[in-house]
Design goal:
It contains 12 helices and 20 strands. The chain is an alpha+beta fold and 390 residues long. It has 2 domains: 229 residues, FAD/NAD(P)-binding domain (3-Layer(bba) Sandwich), CATH 3.50.50; 121 residues, D-Amino Acid Oxidase, Chain A, domain 2, CATH 3.30.9.10. Helix 1 links the parallel strand 1 and strand 2. The longest helix has 28 residues. It is globular. It starts with a strand and ends in a 5-residue tail after the last helix. The relative contact order is 0.17. The model has no long low-confidence stretch (mean pLDDT 97). The chain binds 8-demethyl-8-dimethylamino-flavin-adenine-dinucleotide and P-hydroxybenzoic acid. P-hydroxybenzoic acid binds next to loops.
Length: 390
């Protein structure tokens, strides 16, 4: 089979790019390792910046997001038992974020691909990329026992951190920057009313916590746990008790608990692969970079990659202009590194680090005090959280 763009990975990055290209007449195929049900069972991002929401609308996938997503104009940071407010709207010059889960984003994208008859191969085994530095790259895989070969002009690696695309780039052509944190987030989804109308990020001596939500009847909570902990170590009761200990008293008193309908541990990692292209392969999203979830940058930065790549491919196909493709990596990475800086800053400010000393503790508290005493610092926080311009 021959297509213009072969996309490896049917997560949000791959689906969004294929939908945008299809709408402008560029032929794509998506090769996804897992079943659709499996992809839709993963609970991940909850906060969308305006740029991502705009792309969803451009992809004709924004209707349910605009109907069901909640506009949030701010969030709270709890520290030393005090609940301080971050007014995103005020300090970002009128912007806000949308609370709408990645699972729903992905569901909307799959439905849109189905409506347009988009080509998606699920359960694609042994996806292998070939001849990436020639003018005729191709991708092979096995699907339902049959060998599949896709000839294409370009390959997009949107197959996440553990995918095959980044690993297809020779080591000497790639520089990987990584920081692994000595803790993870234990997350629980529960059919309960959220404890607060806005998100609460909590810095506490026992460790970080986050109160988030998916809707007014579906809550998402996280607590920082040692990287060595296993989900089986945490009963629902133990989770709720630990979360309560970390919340300010007046918040803990309002917490509605219930059985978990999903519980998982996500390790915290910062990672960037440079460059984000190799021959006719272009990496997008988690395939190229990972953010600790504290700044809500992962999916949102995948969105800016897709934006740059989409416009570069359109310029190539519609105007014979390949400058955007040549500059893609550099352009995407400039924004990626700013998002890395912000996630690292939020993570450092709010978590408990096992090897810290009293000097580190004082600096950490001073950082928070500074944010809540300086309009300039608050503006820095707000403009990064709502998303830097593309
Ligand atoms: P994905 O979602 O990992 O999708 C990649 C797809 O590729 C498939 N795949 C392969 N396909 C073919 N062949 C192979 N060899 C393959 N190997 C893998 C996989 O099955 C999968 O379907 O990457 P993508 O599309 O780049 O999307 C990135 C986002 O998923 C990620 O950045 C966010 O979830 C990060 N994140 C958050 N981002 C935000 O912007 N805001 C948030 O509030 C936020 N919260 C979070 C998060 C991530 C979390 N976890 C679990 C890491 C909260 C958490 C807890
Ligand atoms: C979530 O709701 O899953 C969520 C929200 C904000 C973050 C990270 C995760 O910073």
């Amino acid at each position: 089979m021959k297509v213009q763009v072969c996309i490896v990975g049917g997560g949000p990055s791959g689906l969004l790019l294929s939908q945008l290209l299809h709408l402008r007449g560029v032929d794509t195929i998506v090769l996804e390792k897992h079943s659709r049900d499996y992809v839709l069972s993963r609970i991940r991002a909850g906060v969308l910046e305006q740029g991502f929401a705009k792309l969803m609308r451009e992809a004709e996938c924004g209707e349910r997001m605009d109907r069901e997503g909640e506009v949030h104009n701010g969030f709270h940071i709890a520290h030393e038992g005090v609940l301080d407010h971050v007014d995103l709207h005020k300090y970002s010059g009128g912007a806000s974020v949308l609370v709408y889960g990645q699972t729903e984003v992905t569901r909307d994208l799959y439905e849109a691909r189905d409506r347009l008859g988009g080509k998606i191969v699920h359960n694609a085994e042994d996806v292998t990329l070939h001849d990436l530095t020639t003018d005729a790259p191709y991708v092979t895989c096995r699907s339902e026992g049959a060998e599949v070969r896709v000839d294409c002009d370009f390959v997009v690696g949107a197959d996440g951190f553990h995918g095959v695309s980044r690993k297809s780039i020779p080591g000497e052509a790639l520089h990987e920057h990584e920081k692994v944190y000595p803790f993870g987030w234990l997350g629980v989804l529960s059919r309960t009313k959220p404890v607060s109308p806005e998100l609460i990020y909590v810095k506490h001596q026992r460790g970080f916590a986050l109160c988030s939500m998916r809707s007014q009847v579906l809550s998402r909570y996280y607590i920082q746990v040692p990287i060595t902990d296993k989900v089986e170590d945490w009963s629902d009761d133990a989770f709720w008790a630990e979360l309560k200990r970390r919340l300010p008293q007046e918040v803990a008193a309002q917490l509605v608990t219930g059985p978990s309908i999903e519980k998982s541990i996500a390790p915290l990692r910062s990672f960037v692969a440079e460059p984000m292209s190799y021959g006719r392969l272009f990496l997008a999203g988690d395939a190229a970079h990972i953010f600790p979830p504290t700044g809500a940058r992962g999916l949102n930065t995948a969105g800016s990659d897709v934006h740059y790549l989409y416009h570069a491919l359109l310029a190539h196909y519609k105007a014979g202009d390949s400058v955007g493709l040549k500059d893609y990596s550099q352009k995407a990475l400039a924004r990626v590194w700013k998002a890395q800086r912000f996630s690292w800053w939020m993570t450092s400010m709010l978590h408990r680090f096992p090897d810290r000393n009293s000097y580190d503790d004082q600096l950490q508290q001073t950082e928070i005090d500074y944010v809540f005493s300086s309009d300039t610092a608050m503006r820095m926080l707000a403009e990064n959280y709502v998303g830097l311009p593309y």
